[in-house]
Amino acid sequence: MPALHNLTRLYARPGFLLRRAHQISAAVFEDECRGVGLTPAQFGVLSVLRASPGLDQSSLARALGFDKVTVLRVLRGLETRGLIARAPAPASRRNLAISLSEAGLDLLKQAQEPAERAYNRLMAPLDEAQQAQLVDLLQLLTAGLEGEARAPFVPPGQDDSRAASE
After folding, report:
1. Does residue 40 belong to any structural domain of this protein?
2. 77 has which bridge partners?
3. What is the chain's alpha carbon radius of gyration, rounded to the nearest angstrom?
4. CA 4 from centre of chain
């Protein structure tokens, strides 16, 4: 019976449950957004760029908690589809400012309803109080362990002391 006990403990570990919840979340999102052809990462990038046009690649990566390789991969796919544009940043010619194209803005608008359906499907097993509690607990967990992350998370417009060291 020790092997069964070890599996029970594995399946109750927060890391296991968070990874499984992420898999389910991504599958539900991709199912709902299949018609607009967006992944959760692409939707995140387009949403951040709508809120903060002209971000450089490093700031965009931090705004989503992505590493540089991930954000570069997502940006290449979006650029190939004509959904974003990159141009030299006014403040620093070395950096590129990234913004939504008209096609990107149109697609993001089309994605709002399916993304909301995905959110509702994901949260459907929980009542309203449980939904709020889940979000509160996840925010508490991520804020309390932010220093352990492989990639920093810094919403646009917030000071980032790590940015200066990159």
Report:
1. yes
2. none
3. 18
4. 35
pLDDT tier for residue 161 given thresholds of 50, 70 and 90: low
165 within some domain: no
Domain holding 33, by residue range, is 21-144
* Count helices and strands in the chain by DSSP H and E runs: 7, 2
Q: Is the pLDDT of residue 165 over 50?
A: no
CA separation for the pair 69, 19 (Å, rounded): 20
Give me the residues paired with residue 100 across strands. 84
In a domain, 2, yes or no: no
pLDDT for the residue numbered 92: 72
Give the closest residue to 112 by CA, choosing from 41, 38, 61. 38
pLDDT at residue number 164: 44
CA distances from 98 to 32, 50, 129 (A): 27, 10, 38
- The residue behind tokens 């940015």 is 163
Backbone angle region of 38, left / alpha / beta, with phi > 0 → left and psi within -120 to 50 → alpha: beta
Is residue 1 in some structural domain? no
| pTM given for the model | 0.88
